Task: structure prediction
Amino acid sequence: MFENTACSPTYSPAYSPASSISQMSIGSDASPSPSPFNSYPQDNSYNYYDNDYGNSNSGVTSPHPTNMRPMPVPTHTSIFDEALQTKFDQLVTDNNRTGLEELLRSYSNSIDINKLDRASGQTPLQTFCVNGDLALVQLMVRYGADTQLRSRDGWAAVHYATFSGVQDVLLYVIRCSSRR
Result:
């Protein structure tokens, strides 16, 4: 069929598309097949980036004592009282509005109003949003509860207010969140 040997396809027995030996390596020793495990240096000096900046900043390193800045001086000091915090937590659990109002009116500087509950992972504001209690939600916001804080599950007060299905609570939390 092909009489001209220059145009006829030549197939050498050493070459096939599936083999790892190319035409250039015929006659030389077969090179080992590449392995993903031995292509990286063992001393972790492999350059992952094309520039020196990316390679020098690619790893997470511990801070060196000479590079550390001093911690800022706190600007707000409050007198934290563990007994009052325990009483506050109990009043939150009981949904006692009058007790919470009296305690916050007298000792709001001694209580962490945004403290997460260990059992539920929610702040008191988020707990009252789930319960749909508008009066307690308003009380918490009035005394400084943060509407943007996230619970242990990643939900903010607006998520809990939506979940409760009480429209007044949801609208109030949205209005308070937009003021920030």
Observations:
- The radius of gyration is 34 Å.
- The first helix runs from residue 52 to 56.
- Helices lie at 52-56, 82-94, 97-107, 124-131, 134-142, 157-164, 167-178.
